[in-house]
Design brief:
alpha/beta; TIM Barrel; 12% strand; globular
Length: 329
């Protein structure tokens, strides 16, 4: 069991680190409800007060159109992007700012702001058009998850893994255009066959924004040992996620979450591991960390496992910042 460190080191490291969370679904409840982002919400996992308390400096906000929006995927994604501009950036009184590259992040953090990076979860939003990708880029989107769990015009998701389907021709073209534009290619939710095709096609490091290790928890959304090794060789990063069913099938806990970090580090080195909470993307209590205010507990656990401050800084955000610098500039 992880025990609290007595010397206050965890609090100091948390405060001084640039914590990067590579995935949340908070735009969905904000779009559908009447909550205000700048106010504490008595439900869910993430809002401005909790980001501040948790020491998060960079938050990825995903625009995800679920299958129930079939026929209007793009419209739904645009509504969620509008929600970001209206209910996150504007309503935060300048405390949250949209960033498009690493220099923007540095500027935001140095000015005491939270840097927000817009992403789209699921290539369904492109509706088969590479031009839509370029328009989304102009709107500030800097990352795209190629699939959700099902099949779309780009590839098969993990729920279609038994077909052996890889990237389509359009999917290959999308990855190539994202490389050209400078966008983060996200392989979370992608079938394993599609993953290997992305590894062949992409000339830039890719990310798995929210996924754990299949060795510790045998769930199809988690990455195999070979995938983790390949991601690391290519310079990519996986975001360890707090979704209970991805952490442990019976007893999700902070210790189990730390087991995923340990295993990924053993396979790919310290440079391939980051954080991707998936806050507000699932119901119930996250494994080991109650909400976005709880990162100090994770730091305490990492210290207890023997990680030094430099390596903890890489896990908390340094590794994702490296990829952002390389891909977005």
């Amino acid at each position: 069991m992880v025990q609290k460190m007595p010397d206050g080191r965890a609090a100091i490291i948390t405060k001084n680190s640039i914590i990067v969370d590579a995935h949340c679904d908070t735009l969905i409840p904000l779009c559908e409800g009447k909550e205000r982002f700048r106010e504490y919400r008595d439900k869910g996992h993430l809002d401005l007060p909790r980001l501040v308390r948790g020491g998060v400096k960079v938050q990825f906000f995903a625009a995800f159109a679920s299958p129930r929006f079939r026929g209007r995927f793009l419209c739904r994604v645009l509504e969620l992007i509008d929600t970001f501009y209206q209910n996150v950036q504007q309503d935060s009184n300048g405390k949250v700012v949209l960033v498009r590259n690493c220099d923007d992040i540095v500027h935001a953090v140095n000015n005491g702001c939270i840097a927000a990076l817009l992403t789209v979860e699921g290539g369904e939003a492109l509706e088969g058009s590479i031009r839509v990708l370029r328009v989304l880029y102009r709107l500030g989107v800097r990352g795209l998850g190629l699939t959700w769990n099902g099949r779309n015009e780009l590839a098969d998701g993990v729920d279609e893994r038994f077909t052996g389907g890889s990237l389509t021709g359009f999917g290959v073209a999308v990855v190539q255009e994202m490389n050209r534009l400078g966008m983060l290619v996200d392989v979370a939710h992608l079938s394993e066959t599609g993953f290997w095709k992305v590894m062949d096609v992409s000339v830039s490091p890719v990310i798995a924004s929210h996924a754990n290790t299949r060795h510790i928890c045998d769930h199809p959304r988690n990455l195999s040992d070979n995938q983790i090794r390949a991601l690391s060789r290519q310079g990519g990063v996986m975001g360890i996620t707090f979704v209970p069913e991805f952490v442990h099938k019976d007893c999700p806990s902070l210790d189990a979450l730390l087991d995923h970090i340990d295993h990924a580090v053993q396979l790919g080195g310290i440079g391939c591991v980051g954080l991707g909470s998936d806050f507000d993307g699932f119901s119930g209590r996250p494994a080991g960390i109650e909400d976005a205010a709880g990162y100090e507990k994770l730091v305490e656990g990492l210290l207890h496992r023997g990680y030094d401050e430099a390596d903890i800084g890489k896990i908390l955000g340094g590794n994702f910042l490296r990829v952002i610098r390389e891909v977005l500039g």
